[in-house]
Amino acid sequence: MLKLTDISLSSRLSGINVSASKGKLIHLIGPNGAGKSTLLAVMAGLLTYQGKVELAGRDIAHCSGLQLARLRGYLSQQQENALMMQVFQYIALHQPQNASVEATEQSVAFLAERLDLADKQSGCGTAGGTRRAAYAVLCRGENRHCQCP
Q1: Which CA distances in Å does 13 have to 8, 20, 23, 50, 60?
Q2: Residue 116: closest CA among 95, 103, 135, 102
Q3: Helix, strand, coil share (%) of the chain residues, nearest 5
Q4: Shortest CA distance to 124 belongs to which of 134, 111, 113?
Q5: pTM (2 d.p.)
Q6: Sign of CA dihedral 37, 43, 44, 48
Q7: Which whole-number Å values give the CA distances from 31 to 16, 28, 36, 129, in the listed order?
Q8: What is the pLDDT of residues 86-135, one digit of tens each?
Q9: How high is the pLDDT of residue 149?
Q10: Exposed e or buried b per residue across 11-21, where buried means at least 16 C-beta atoms within 10 angstroms of its C-beta
């Protein structure tokens, strides 16, 4: 469950209260500059805010960066593949440190195939390819669990 209680951030967000149970699809709409991306960054624990954000019953303010990474995923609005590395390299770069070579190769091949990136041998190519590669990295952590205070 996600619960936001009296979320405020300087002059950008004020008094936001929302709750959603697991599996619910929420649409966040508004004009440019309304604070949609800011609110998502607050919900991910990336900005300092006033109020309380709870995810899976845990106050994210008390979670470490590692715990947050295991608890949720965040894909920013703008993400560049600055090194212009191949899709397979980009996804493999984000595998667990203790993963075997074989497990990494299987994971990379599976994600690249599922997200229609298997033919992108030379690089992410388009902006859409880069976004799908970044999404593949997020999918890699789909079995998140966290123990926060």
Answers
A1: 5, 19, 25, 10, 18
A2: 135
A3: 35, 15, 50
A4: 134
A5: 0.60
A6: positive
A7: 17, 10, 9, 27
A8: 666 666 766 777 778 888 778 777 877 777 766 554 445 555 666 666 76
A9: 39
A10: eebeebeeeee
For residue 131, what pLDDT is reported?
Answer: 66
For residues 26-50, average pLDDT: 89
Predicted confidence (pLDDT) at residue 77 exceeds the cutoff of 70: no
Angle, CA 11 vertex, CA 9 and CA 15 arms, to 5°? 55
Angle of helix 127-140 versus helix 101-114 axis, rounded to 10: 130
Q: Report the alpha-carbon distance of residue 87 to residue 133 in Å, rounded.
A: 6
* Phi and psi angles of residue 73, each rounded to the nearest 5 degrees, phi first: -115, 155
Asked if 4 and 53 touch (Cβ cutoff 8 Å), the reply is: yes
H/E stretch holding 58: strand 58-59
Burial class (CB in 10 A: 0-12, 13-18, 19+), 1: exposed
* Cα dihedral 74/67/46/23 (nearest 10): 40
